[in-house]
C-alpha cells in the first residue's frame, strides 16, 4: 500500500524534523553553556594572577615622610627592578579624596576610576574586579583594592590585559557555532534514516492489513514478536477482524437459515395446492387443502414478522409503550395461552405468584418475553416434566424477580455464553425442537435490556434450565412495595388432564 499525500505531511518527515530541531536546540544551548564556563574559568585565573601581583606590590610600597606611597626596592638588583617594572605597567594609586597620586601610561589611556568608585572600594573590606576599555578597543581586568598603612589609606588598582583571553573565547565560539549547521545537517540526515527504520514496520503492517478484505476475513496479521506498541495494535486489529468475521459468518448463516426456513413451507404450500388442484374431488377436499395451506402461510408470516421485529428492535426503531403492568396477571394470561401446547407435549405448567406485581414495561414486549421463555421450557422438556414460573419481589435492593425454570434436558455449559446471540441454537437437538430460528432468546435479551433489567441462565444437562430475569421497581408512588405487598399466592396448578 502506498501512502498518498505530501512528503511534508508524512510521519517520517515529522519524526525527522522534530528530532533535528531538538538536536539543534540542544547543541546550541550546550554551546552557550560551554562558552560561559570557559569565560568563567579564564576570568577566575586572571583574578588569581592579579591577587598574586597585589601581594607582591604590598612588599614594595611604603609611605614616605609626606605620607605618600613610594616604591621601595634596590635598583641595582636586576631581578627586583624587573619585577617592580612589570608591576608598574598597568596601575594607579589614589588618595582617600579620589585624587590620583601615581599611575602608569597604559592606565592613563583607559581613564581613572571616579572618586565615587574609589570611595566605595575604600569602604569595602574585600577587593573588587571590573572590566575597563581603552580607546583602542583593548579590554582590561582591573583589581581595585585598599592599601592600609599606619600613615594613611590609598586606593590601588592593578590591571591585566584581558583582550587575548577574549580572543580565545571568541575563537572557541566561532569554531563551535560555525560547525553547528554542518552537525545539524548530519543529524537531520541521520534522523531521516532513523525515521525510515521506525516507519518501515508500520508500512509493512499496513500492507498486510490491506490484504484482509471482506472475502478473506480469516487472514490475520502475524504479530512481530517485539511486544511493543505496534504488536499491541496488530493484536487489537486482529481481534477486530475476528469480531467482524464472526458477524459476517452469523449474517451468512442467517441468510442460509432464513431462505431455508422460508423455502420449506413455501414448497409445501405449493405442493399441497398443486395436488389439490389436480386430484381434489369436490369442494370439501379443496377447502381442506386451502385450510392446510393457510396454516403454513400463517407460520410463514409469523416468521417474517419475528425477523422484522428483531431487525427493528436492534436498529433502535421499536419504541416501547411503557406503562405500569401487573406482571403476575400477565404470567397468568400467557400460561393460559400456552396450556394447550403444554398439554399436547405432556408438560405441566406451574406458577408461584404474588397477587399483583407491578413493573413498568411495554405490555406487548413483556408478553413476548414470557411467551418465548415459557414456550422454550415446554419445547425442551420431555413428557412428564414441568415448567414453573415464579414472580417475587426483593426488598433490598428493591427489584422484581421473574424465574422460569424447567426440569427438561438442560443446556451444556459451553453453550450458555452464546445462548443470547442471534441465530444461536444448541446443536444436536432433535429436529422438532430445532424449528426455531434461534432468534427467540436474542429478542428476550433485547427486551430485558430495553427495560433496564438483567437476565441470567443456569442450566444442568439432564436436570433442567432456569432463566432469571430482574426488573427494576417502578419509581412512581402508586406502586410502592406497600401497595402490592409481598405476600404470595401459590396459583392454581396447571396440570395435565
Ligand atoms: P429457538 O427458536 O431455537 O428456540 P431460542 O433463541 O429461543 O431459539 O433458543 C436458543 C437455543 O437455546 C435453543 O435452540 C435451545 O437449544 C436452547 N434453549 C432455550 N431454552 C431452553 C430450555 N428451557 N431448555 C433447554 N434448551 C433451551
Structure, briefly:
The chain is of the alpha+beta class and 497 residues long.
What report would you give on this structure?
This protein is an alpha+beta fold. The protein folds into 3 domains: 2-166, Beta-Lactamase (2-Layer Sandwich), CATH 3.30.450; 229-314, Orthogonal Bundle (Helix Hairpins), CATH 1.10.287; 322-492, Histidine kinase-like ATPase, C-terminal domain (Heat Shock Protein 90, 2-Layer Sandwich). Helix content is 52%, strand content 19%. It contains 11 helices and 15 strands. The protein has helices at residues 11-60, 78-87, 105-110, 115-123, 163-210, 229-279, 282-314, 327-345, 363-379, 440-450, 481-484, and strands at 61-63, 69-71, 91-94, 100-103, 128-133, 139-149, 152-161, 322-326, 348-354, 358-362, 386-394, 399-406, 454-460, 464-472, 488-489. The strands form 4 sheets. A 6-stranded mixed β-sheet has the order 13-14-12-11-9-15, covered by helices on one side. The chain has a 5-stranded antiparallel β-sheet with strand order 4-3-7-6-5, with helices on both faces. Strands 1-2 form a two-stranded antiparallel ribbon. Helix 1 runs antiparallel to helix 5 (163-210), helix 8 (327-345) runs parallel beside helix 9 (363-379) and helix 9 packs antiparallel against helix 10. The longest helix is centred in the middle third of the chain and has 51 residues, at 229-279. The chain is rod-shaped, with a radius of gyration of 51 Å. Residues 477-497 have low confidence and may be disordered. Bound molecules: adenosine-5'-diphosphate.
